Every structure is written in C-alpha cells, then in structure tokens.
Amino acid sequence: KEAFEQTIAEDGLIEYACYCGNYYGTPRAQVMEWLEQGIDVILEIDVQGSAQVKLRRSDTIRIFVLPPSWQALKSRLISRARDPLKDVAVRLKNAYHELEEGLKFDYAIENGERAAARDLLRVIRAEDPEEFALARQRGKIEALLNGYEEVETIC
Questions:
Q1: Which 3 state secondary structure label does DSSP give 151?
Q2: pLDDT band at residue 84 under the 50/70/90 scheme
Q3: pTM
Q4: Which of 45, 55, 83, 147 could form a disulfide bond with 87, CB atoms 3.0-4.6 angstroms apart?
C-alpha cells in the first residue's frame, strides 16, 4: 500500500482508483511511451480511472461496457463466489453509479458473451461506430438505471 501511494505521489500512474479497499492503477511511463511511438493503447479500467485519463489526454475515446441486465450482473457476481452477498450488494450499488458515469462516455457496448468482443473491435476499427455511439445507447443505460431498485430488493 505504501509503495502504491508513493507511486501516486510521484505521478507515476496515468490513472488509479481504490475499489473495495484495494488499489488499482496503470503505470504512466509505459502508456506514454507507446503513445509517443504512435501505438494506440487500450486500457481496461473503471470509470474513475477513465475520467482521470480523459483529463490527462483529451483525445481519449471512452467505451463503456454495460451489463445486459441487473439480473445478469448479479448472477455473474454471485457465481464468481469470491464475495459474500453483502459485498455483492455493494458492488451492485457501485455499478449503479458507474452506469451514471457511463452516460459521459463516447460509446457503449453490451457485455453479452461473445458479442462484446466483436462489438469492441467494431468500435475500434470504426466499423459503423454510430451503432455504439452513446446517443444511440443512452436508452439502454437509462433503462438499467431505472431498473436498479427492483434488483436491489432481491439482494
């Protein structure tokens, strides 16, 4: 923990977050080196980290990965069997706030098994990117936000 906090203090991370008591982050030097070489970089990070990267690099394109439903998300979290049910409820509450932040992204794709990887590649390759543009996906995110209470009571 001390080493991670020292790296934060030295601006050694392009993004970082503390999630459920654990630190996560991406080393800044390696990302910047690749970008300077003209290599596109894909980061799999949470919304906090994404916002930090966007502040540092205004040319960042953000793609939000959303669950197909609250029930699917809950089932995935439970089936991992890594967290007690009370922690699953916390993760679902966090997911609600992440969905709110997802409304600020450029694109959104649904994580529904194999289609997510295909759709991600379609966005990256600019193959019909309007299909995944936030303006077109906003309704899915809003529907998930509106359906949150129903799932919360199940936990």
A1: helix
A2: low
A3: 0.83
A4: 83
Among candidate residues 136, 134, 141, the one with its CA nearest the CA of residue 106: 134
> What pLDDT is stored for residue 74 in this prediction?
83
Q: Rounded to an integer, what distance in angstroms lies between the CA atom of residue 69 and that of residue 44?
A: 21
| Token code pair at residue 125 | 């390759």
Read off the tokens for 114: 């194999």
Q: Indicate the pairing of strand 107-110 with strand 13-19.
A: unpaired
Cα dihedral 73, 60, 38, 23 in deg (nearest 10): -50
Structure tokens at 51: 């916002």
- Looking up tokens 């990117």 gives 129
Compute the distance between CA of residue 19 and CA of residue 103 in angstroms, rounded to an integer: 20
Instruction: Calculate the alpha carbon distances from 136 to 1, 3, 59, 130 in Å.
Output: 41, 43, 21, 7
